[in-house]
Amino acid sequence: MMTASLARVMQRGLVVAVIAGAAAMVPGTASLAAAAHTVDISIVAGKDAAGGGFDFNGYRNGAMTITVPAGWQVAVHFVNANDLPHSVVVLPVGADKSPAPGGSPVFSGATTKDLAAGLPKGGKQTFTFEASKPGTYEFVCGVSGHAVAGMWDKLVVSATAEAPSVTPAGAATISVGGN
Predict the structure, then answer these.
(1) Which residue, among 107, 80, 77, 92, has the nearest Cα to 177 in the 3D structure?
(2) Which residues 6+ apart lie within 8 Å of 141 measured at CB?
(3) CA angle, corner 135, sides to 112 and 176, nearest 5?
(4) Domain 34-177, CATH among 3.30.360.10, 2.60.40.420, 3.40.50.720, 2.30.30.140
(5) Nearest Cα to 84, choosing from 128, 42, 125, 51?
(6) Which residues pair with 129 in a beta bridge?
(7) Taken in order 165, 167, 161, 158, is the CA torsion positive or negative?
(8) CA dist., res. 19 & res. 15, Å (int)
(9) From CA 137, how far away is CA 131, in angstroms rounded?
(10) What is the pLDDT of residues 94-124, one digit of tens each?
(11) What angle do CA 136, 88, 56 make, to 5 degrees?
């Protein structure tokens, strides 16, 4: 025989399951299952010495676009290959116009430490965040003057994409984990 408290716990569990199932059916809403997916992205700062080193993976001025499905966990593996210090942060579109981009990243945790100072040559850092809000954003170097010199690319968080991608093909190393 079921106790009253056990019955209440089971009812609450059923309500949570129904709400989660309903959210998964609403277009543009990340499902609970999607949050279990992860994507690892490698970003190398200053790869193109000919361009002055103001690039991510050899691309600058928004020429590279990384797309991830909404609700996915994103792990960015950042390396500075240039003699100049560099950093990376995910900011709203237009941050590339600021001589000293700063402020809070669009997604909690979507930044290297010491954004304004940057990491020295050979510096490595991994940060993770949940791509929780569909939209178009920018990967921007937070060191003063670097973004306006072209050191920014695009991040698209898509409510309709089923898998991560990068344009142009091969511009970044992406690997998928999770479900």
Answers:
(1) 77
(2) 45, 54, 56, 86, 87, 88, 101, 118, 147, 151, 152
(3) 60
(4) 2.60.40.420
(5) 51
(6) 74
(7) positive
(8) 6
(9) 11
(10) 998 988 887 899 999 999 999 999 999 999 9
(11) 80
Which tokens in the block code for residue 151?
């050191």
Spatial neighbors of 128 by CB under 8 A, at least 6 apart, are 73, 74, 75, 76, 109
**Rounded to an integer, what distance in angstroms lies between the CA atom of residue 58 and that of residue 44?**
8
Task: Report d(CA 67, CA 166) in Å as an integer.
Answer: 6
Instruction: Report the distance separating Cα 87 and Cα 45, nearest Å.
Output: 8
Tokens of 91: 């900011």
Question: Residues for the chain: how many in total?
Answer: 179
**What tens digit of pLDDT does each residue of 136-160 get?**
999 999 999 999 999 999 999 999 9
Q: What is the DSSP string of 5-60?
A: HHHHHHHHHHHHHHHHHHHHHSTTPPPTTGGG-EEEEEEEET--GGGTT--BTTB-
Q: Residue 89 has which token pair?
A: 């942060």
pTM above 0.85, yes or no: no
CA 5 to chain CA centroid, nearest Å: 42
